[in-house]
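Weekly structure sync, notes
Attendees: PL, DS, HV (note-taker this week)

Item 1: L-idonate 5-dehydrogenase
DS walked through the input record. Source organism listed as Roseibium salinum. Sequence as pasted into the shared doc:
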Amino acid sequence: MYDIPRPLKLVLAKEFILRGSFRFGAEFEWAVELLSSGAIDLSSVILAMLPAERANEAFGLASDRCLTRNVQLAFNG
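Item 1 (cont.): predicted structure, written out as tokens:
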């Protein structure tokens, strides 16, 4: 068990809900392979793909509640 500092005053004041999550290593690699090979088409889900250098613009698009699809950052290098 890890003792992780938490901003409890902020959690209480803003009524945040804290949830833990568990990352699966093998499933992530499998998903990347499926996406890279084109076996899964996400074009109907992704609104835009922007280079990482335009991250601020991408987050602005993603935070627009009128848009229902996702914005993807492209990391090429």
